[in-house]
Specification:
Radius of gyration: 17 Å
Order of helices and strands: HHHHHHHH
Strand content: under 5%
Largest sheet: none
Structural class: mainly alpha
Helix content: over 70%
């Protein structure tokens, strides 16, 4: 009964996130105030969903990482603060990586890192000619998000459960969103790039947030 209630509550929260995210996407080009408010609220609800279960150190670190995502969202409302937004998301990924490394500290499957670092190198190679003064900050960002994604992949392969599956899927969507954002900003802006960036980003953080609150049970019960 309790599990059923928690599951239904998560569905309601995810529906609210979807409605707010859609509102932000629709109003991005028409009303900056509504866009900013709905953008901030969407990420805030994801954080509230995640904070419902912070029973383990990893869960607490995930909440802290999502808070930096919120700071990044707000900073990126003004493109003059792009670098500060980049730093905020860098710190978010660094926290996710630290949490995953602490909780899944096996030395097995380290070769997965080389796959994601290679993918990151390909992404950076496509961006490099247009980066100029942001070459090193973007390089650092590509490195941290590819490392975080690699560790999430390792966690899923080493310990297949609901939590690691959600974290891995969230990491992949995050990497997709940031790749589209980077190419849109530095290489070429496509007509629907903003829709793709925002939708994949909120899918990413919703999956990461849901990994904390899965059925609102302590993480140990989801192992």
């Amino acid at each position: 009964m309790i599990l059923s209630f928690a599951h239904n509550k998560n569905k309601v929260v995810l529906l609210c996130i979807g409605i707010l995210a859609l509102t932000a996407i629709i109003f991005e080009s028409y009303n900056t105030l509504i866009y900013g408010i709905s953008k901030g609220l969407t990420t805030s609800i994801v954080i509230l969903m995640a904070v419902k279960n912070s029973s383990s150190l990893l869960n607490k670190i995930i909440v802290a990482g999502l808070l930096f995502c919120l700071f990044g969202d707000l900073l990126l409302l003004n493109q003059d603060y792009f670098v500060f937004g980049l730093i905020s998301f860098f710190l978010a990924h660094a926290l996710f990586l630290i949490g995953l490394l602490r909780h899944y500290n096996s030395k097995q499957k380290l070769w997965i890192y080389f796959i994601f670092w290679s993918l990151g190198a390909i992404i950076f190679y496509g961006l490099y000619p247009n980066l100029k003064a942001l070459t090193y900050p973007v390089l650092a960002y590509v490195f941290i998000i590819s490392s975080m994604s690699a560790q999430a992949a390792r966690a899923y392969i080493l310990k297949r459960n609901n939590k690691t599956a959600l974290l891995f899927a969230g990491a992949l969507f995050f990497m997709l969103s940031d790749t589209v954002l980077a190419y849109s900003k530095f290489v070429h802006t496509y007509k629907f790039s903003s829709v793709l960036i925002l939708s994949t980003y909120w899918i990413a953080i919703s999956l990461i947030g849901l990994s904390n609150s899965y059925l609102n049970q302590p993480y140990e019960n989801q192992s």
